[in-house]
Amino acid sequence: MINGLKEALNAGTNNSSNLASKADGFLKNPAIFIPCPQEAKDNVSKLIKMGMQKKVTEFETSLNRAAEEAAKKSVPVFKDAITGMSIGDGFAILNGGDTAATHT
């Protein structure tokens, strides 16, 4: 059962990395898009009011492009974690909720 879980996690890792690492993988996907940090929202609002929406958009684009590049290199990290997963970890994921694999 745990081996099947590991296979499923490996497949999910490959698929999600492939989708996220494509051009616009983060930028055009509302589920994983990275906006300006919450701490900068006041400043972002001021910049937009000053007519600097283009610069704000460029900044958000650069954040998301960096995430797309990082996704290309993420597979080995996740595969190491999956390979090193204990039986207890596997059962915690199987018996946990929808986010058990990301919170274990």
Write up what this structure looks like.
With 104 residues, the chain is mainly α. It has one domain (2-103). It is built from 6 helices and no strands. The protein is elongated and about 55 Å long. The mean pLDDT is 90.
Concise overview:
Helices cover 68% and strands 0% of the residues. The protein has 104 residues and is mostly helical. The radius of gyration is 18 Å and the shape is elongated.
Count of helix runs: 6
> Level of helix content?
55-70%
The radius of gyration computed from the alpha-carbon positions, rounded to a whole number of angstroms, is: 18 Å
Q: How much of the sequence is in beta strands? A: under 5%
Q: Would you count the extended β strands for me?
A: 0
Largest sheet: none
Average pLDDT works out at 90
Number of structural domains = 1
Uncertain runs are none
From the spread of the alpha carbons, the general shape counts as elongated
Element order: H for helix, E for strand:
HHHHHH
Structural class: mainly alpha
Q: Kindly report how far apart the N and C termini lie.
A: 17 Å
Topology:
Layout: H1 2-21, H2 41-49, H3 53-72, H4 75-83, H5 87-95, H6 100-103
Helix pairs in contact: 1-3, 1-4, 2-3
Keywords:
104 residues, mainly alpha, 6 helices, 68% helix
